[in-house]
Amino acid sequence: MNQSSSQISLDSLKARRIALVKARWHAEIVDQCQLGFEQELARAAAQDGSPAYAVDVFEAPGAFEIPLLARDLARSGRYATVVGAAFVIDGGIYRHEFVADTVVGALMQVQMESDVPVLSAVLTPHNFHDSEEHRRFFFDHFKVKGQEAAKACLALLATRLAIREAA
């Protein structure tokens, strides 16, 4: 495969369309990531006067399924970037770290193979207790993570576009 055919197309890079894939486990918490993400994109567009990015949201049953959907979306050519969001907690068996590592590694693989940026808002807290205090903390924290993901997305896309246009 030659270099130009492995790169994201300039049309896709300029698409102003982002795919967000979110896991449904702990949906009330993960949904805050989407909220923060969309609010930050709208704030940034209003601040610099550019058109806002459209966000297409896709749901996955859990975190483990996100990379497959991310790959399909990256391959579609419709998105400038793909973002995965999930909350992977220790449910009392040693599995959560394996799931989180596998998901994040697979998202990186999708990104490198497709040349479409794939960002991760897949979080695995060291200690999560199913209490009102912890649920409230992570409810608020995921909104912040969504805002951070949006900022990272915008910065990465701007840099990639500048690199491509300078070539």
CATH class: Alpha Beta
What string gives the helices and strands in order? HHEHEHEHEH
What's the β-strand tally?
A: 4
% residues in beta strands: 15-25%
* Oligomer class: single chain
Low-confidence stretches: 1-5
Q: Nearest-angstrom radius of gyration?
A: 16 Å
Through-space gap between termini: 20 Å
- Largest sheet entry: 4 strands, parallel
CATH superfamily: Lumazine/riboflavin synthase
Under the CATH scheme, which architecture would be assigned?
3-Layer(aba) Sandwich
On the 0 to 100 scale, the average pLDDT is 86
Task: Give the % helix.
Answer: 55-70%
Apparent shape: globular
Number of domains: 1
Number of helices: 6
Structural class: alpha/beta
How would you describe the overall organization of this protein?
The chain is α/β, with parallel strands linked by helices and 167 residues long. The protein has a single domain (3-166), classed as 3-Layer(aba) Sandwich (Rossmann fold), CATH 3.40.50. The protein has helices at 3-6, 10-13, 27-48, 66-76, 96-114, 132-166; strands at residues 17-23, 54-60, 81-87, 118-123. Strands 2-1-3-4 form a 4-stranded parallel sheet, sandwiched between helices.
